[in-house]
Each structure stands twice: as structure tokens, then as C-alpha cells.
Amino acid sequence: MPKTRSGGGLSGTQQAAKFLGVSVLAGAVLAGIALPAFGALGLAAKGTVEGFDEIPANLKTPPLSQRTTILDSQGGKIATVYSRDRTVVPLTDISPYMQKAIVAIEDSRFYEHGAIDLKGVLRAVNRNAQSGGVAQGASTLTQQYVKNVFVEEAGDDPDKVAQATQQTLGRKIQELKYAIQVEEELGKKKILENYLNITFFGQQAYGIEAAAQRYFSKPAKDLTLPESAMLAGIVQSPSRYDPVNDEEEATKRRNTVLQRMAAVGAVSQKEADKAKAEPIALKVSRPKNGCITAVSGAGFFCDYVRNVFLTDPAFGKTREERGKVWNQGGLTIRTTLDPQAQSAAQDSIKKHVYKSDAVATALTIVQPGTGKILAMGQSRPYGFDKHETQINLSVDQKMGGGAGYQPGSTFKPIVAAAALERGISPTQAYSSPYQMDYPSPISTCAGNYVNTNGEKLENEDESEVGPYAMKEAMAKSVNTYFVQMIAQTGTCAVTELAGKLGVNRADGSKLGTGPAIALGTEEMSPLTMAQAYATFASRGTRCEPIAIESITGPDKKSIPVPKKSCARVMSENTADTITALLKGVVEDGTGQQAGLSDRPSAGKTGTTDGRYAAWFTGYTPNMATAVWVGDPAHAKRMIDISIGGQYHDKVYGGDTPGPIWRDAMSGALAGRTVEQFNDIVIPDPPKKDRDKPSDNQSDDSGDQGAQGGQGDPGDASAGNDGNENGNNGNNGNNGGGFGGFPGGSSSQGNNGRGGR
């Protein structure tokens, strides 16, 4: 017996229910006309058509979140990523059993009524009126589809999801209105197709294709009757009827669906009974989502691709807009990753550095002349367990990396290139003492640097005492030589060239301006160093790093990607000269353990002060690779340490990163054409040129003593004696020694030294 108010009349809720029933019967809803506002219905409250501000632009064919597939350069799959695991399929690729099952259990009169089932609406309104709330929905498949569209549009925003799913009469009327529009324009088959593609089936599976793959490891078109009934039963409550966690409850629900199918004539009772007798036979495929599933250790490259997409304006004006496209998915992204190079990189990493080691390694390979990233790997895998990380040790902080690592002496070729561009000869000699004060003053872009604290630097070994010319200084990685060189050119020449090369700090801050920059004291990423050296390999043409070759959207149409961006940043002669210098490093210098036996190569070692990081960065004409080894936290010194099962008293750039580089490059280049450098011969300077100071000395006419005067550069009173013991040199006075650099006053530089 319905409740009445004390005065004997109908309650406000009952009056509203009666009004809704009359309106429906009168055809107002069927005509697509919005029902008049009525307080008891909640039509003026938030959640009505007027108050809902996130209406999808197209209810007929809304963009559905799908899987995005990331491919390597050869079309092989690297990983599948998605915010919602869904693959949209046409109705023809969905089992007829599945179509019948979902209709039978969710809306058995689907093919008989319009957008609204009048009997169902009246039944629900009366039930709700009696209960004083919303106890029964009676939604048709079309209405459920409309609701799912709003949920899909809400994405992962919990407020929007709650708004899209709120159970109010106002919301119900909103669904009715849009259901009418959809039914008028789509027709039953298309609505059923859309519904099966949008609905949630539990276990992270959205849409029937993903559900079929998740529970039975088969496509939706091959689903059997009992399998279809089970999946149809899940929709009402994906958690309650989850067959993975509660097979008994799922079986009961499946049998309910089967009986309903028999009752409405979708299958015979005999077919239903036979299907009921079968146990649920799951063949579960676990979700394989995200970069953590990437092959060949390419998880970090996968993550880099995602960051490129989210940060590049080519894919949307704002990060929010780009994020929406990424989350919507359905993309096929073909990348630059070379499968051979990637496998070689990971094989070498695993051979030389264990993931459980106290230190880690990261490696990046770039193609000269294009900027294409061919490989990217590291010893600590992409993941969340012990000895795993989500930090990409190969890239800058803004792209998912860390704060970077001092590159040490691998920065010296950039100093040399800046000097060559300023007209300094590759035969230039400097005194290069074992130890010296930082020269002062030195010109910078912002004034002058002055060594006010008397900061000193020294070479790696006490036997490294000049004078040296550029070729020998590069091969032996003589610190004092390159600091004397940067004192002559000024640091501005170096930082300006670094900027052209794309060499920046990994944390995004500006490079320092002190002379210690010559020793690689500014933290950088392996990708940064690899693409800088690729410029030497390409004879002075620098290319922006590229990770994405092409993208196809959900509609199979091509999406524009950033084009190759290359520019000349130094002369061919300068680049070729640097190559000649770096060939000496692997042939006769500190990088001999990295040299390739079957093709020409060039490179440079680097070991930072304190041995917190060690590098080898080098190249052939067709690949440039940077290898870093160290503690990402900058806390562990590589002294008295075991790496990859091999003990090291002290780690050098040549003995740990060097072999990693050699093995990675050997594998990456195997079977490829042997290309040659454009060779330049750098003559050894005549003895008198090797022994004399730079051109800006006050007096360079005499032969120097065995170790030369180690006067303070820039101080004409220093270096009065020809050798450090005095009175041995010839014409060593009046600023002779090897000082006499141009000066001025300025900011403080960073202390430190770059070892071999």
C-alpha cells in the first residue's frame, strides 16, 4: 500500500512519479523535449542536463580510450601502454553468443522498444516512489551506453566520475534525453556494438575484445556460449562476479544469464543446460600494460617516448591537451629504436654491470646526421622492486631522468673544438704542469673570472708534466693543458659552443662560467653527451635527438610528428680535427680498451674528481654512444669496488665504461657497412714549438727547462725561473714560464678535476 501524507493525499515524491509517468506516456520524452523542471525530481540540482558541464561532443561515436602500441624502427612491438585496456572491434568480430547474452541479461526487450522501455520506466518510477528514493534503474542498453559515454569522458577524475554516475531522477532524465538522440541516429546494431566496446568487464578490461583476451586468451569473435554468458554476467558487478577471485559466484551468475537466454528464446533450454554443466575454464592473460613490459630492456626508452609526446607542442598546445590524447590512446607509434643496437646495448650492460651492484650504468646510442636515438638502456631495470627504478639515468630531469652526472674529461673535446673555432692551432702547446693554480683572470660571457681563493688543479698522475701539444694532451687527458687552453679562449667561447651542441645541465640550470668547466664539472646526461659527439661524427652538423618516426591515430590516419632538425654548429675542419684527436685516444691513449678492431672509432674517457662517475663517449661515422658508470645518488666513490663481478682498486673511464662501449658498439654495428672518417693528419709540433709557451707569452724565444716555469698565468712577475728549481731555463723571466694569459676580473669557478 503506497504511503500517503497525513492529509491523505500523495506525497511529493509520489506526485513527481505520477507526473513523470504521464509525461512519458504523453510522448514528451519520446519527442526529445526536455521535461519541465520540477523540484521534487531534482531537475534544478547539479547533475541535470543544464548543470552538467562535461557533455561529450559526440554521443554517437565518442573517442574511446584504447591501447597504444609502441614499435621499434623495424615494426617490432616494444610495449603496449594504456590508461584503459581496450581494443575497439566491429560487431562482426563479436561472437553472436555474446551479443545475445548481453541483450538477454541487460535488456531483453532491446530490439522491441525505442530508446526508452516504457514498461520498465513506469515500473521503476513506481518502485522508486514507494521507496522514497532511487531503488531501481530500469535502464535500457541505450541508456547504459549513454551513461558509459559520460563515464568515459570523465576519465580518471573522481569528481567527474561521481557526477556521471550519480543515481538521481535528474540524471535518469538526462540519460533518457540523450538516449533518444542516439537511438534516432545510430540504430540497434551500432548501439550494441558501441555498448560492447565501451563497457567495463573487470580485471582492467574495457570492451569485449579486451575481456575475451583477459579471461580466455582469445578474440571476442571466438567466444563460446558459456564464455559469453559468463562475460555478460560480469557487467552488473565486475567485482562481485569476478571469476578470477570468486569462481563459485561467477558460475552462479553465468547460469543465471544462460537461463535468461533460454527464457527469452536466445538459445534453447537444452543448449542452456549443456552450457550450465560446463565448469568455467579460464585461460587468464594478465594485463601487460606500460613501459615495464617493454622488450630488450627498452622500458626507459618507452618512458622517454611518452615524455616526448607529453612535452612536445607538436602533439597539442598544452600538456593537458597532450595528456588527454595520450590517455585516449589508440595510437601506433613507430620509434627510432634499432632492435639490433638495443639488444647489443643491453647485452653489454648485463655482461659488465650487475643490477645489484653498488653503482649503475646507463648507455645511449645516437645516429649522427639524423639525431635518431637507436638504443637506450641501463643496468637497473625499469620497475618497482629492489635494484629497479623508474628514473631514466640516460636523460635530463625534465624527461624523466635524474640531476645528471659530471662528464669529466669527456667534456674536453668541446673545449678543444671551441679553441679550434677561435683559430687556435691543433699543434698548440701549453706548459701543462702537474699542478697549478686556476688561471686568473679569465674572460667569461658575463665579465671575468678571478681566482680569489687560490684554487688549484692537478693532473691524474704526477708524471703528467708538460709541455704538451693538443694531440698528446687529449690522448693522455691532461687537465692542466685544457684549463690553460680555456684561459686563452675564455669560457664564453666554450659555453656558447656547448649551447649550439645542445650540451646543457641535466637539471635545466645554466652552465657554470668558471674555468673548471673544462674538466667536466657540470652534471649532464648520457643522451646529451651522445648527441654532442654525434656532431663530431657528422662533421659539424648537430641534430636534435629524435625518438618518434611516425604516429597513426585510432582512425588509422597519420598524425604529424616533429621533423628532423639539424644545423651546422662548427666547421667540417674543426669536427674532423676533433675526430683525429679522439682517434688517438682509442689508439694510443686512455681509451685503448674501448677501441674497435674492425672499423675506425674515436672517443674520450672521463673520470670525475673523487671517482663518483666514469665515462666513455665515442663514435664511428654512423653511431655515437655515451656510457656512464656511477652512483645515481652521487654518494658512492668507485674505489675498492666490485662491478659486474670484477674488482677495481680505482675505476677509470677506460677500464669500465670503455669495455661496455666497445661491446655495445661491436654488437650494434655487426654486419653493417664499415664507414670511414674524413681523416686529417695532425703533425707533431717541432721540438721548439712543443717546448715554447703559447703565442701570447711575453717572451717565447728561448728553450725551456725540463719542467718549464710554473708561474701563475696572467701574472707577469711569476715564472721568473726557467724551471721550478730556478735559474735553469733560458729566457724564462719576464713572464716566461708558461703563463701570460689575458686577464680581467670575474666570478668564481667550480673546483674539481677531470681524470682519465
Distance separating the two termini = 93 Å
CATH class of the domain at 83-277, named Mainly Alpha
Q: How many helices in DSSP terms?
A: 22
Rg from alpha-carbon coordinates: 36 Å
What is the name of the CATH architecture of the domain at 83-277?
Answer: Orthogonal Bundle
Q: How many strands appear in the DSSP assignment?
A: 21
CATH homologous superfamily designation of the domain at 83-277 = Biosynthetic peptidoglycan transglycosylase-like
**Overall 3D form:** elongated
Largest sheet entry: 6 strands, antiparallel
Strand order of the largest sheet: 5-4-18-17-16-21
Helix/strand class:
alpha+beta
Average predicted local confidence, pLDDT: 82
The share of residues in extended strands comes to: 5-15%
CATH topology of the domain at 83-277: Penicillin binding protein transpeptidase fold
Poorly predicted parts? 1-57, 133-137, 694-753
Helix content: 25-40%
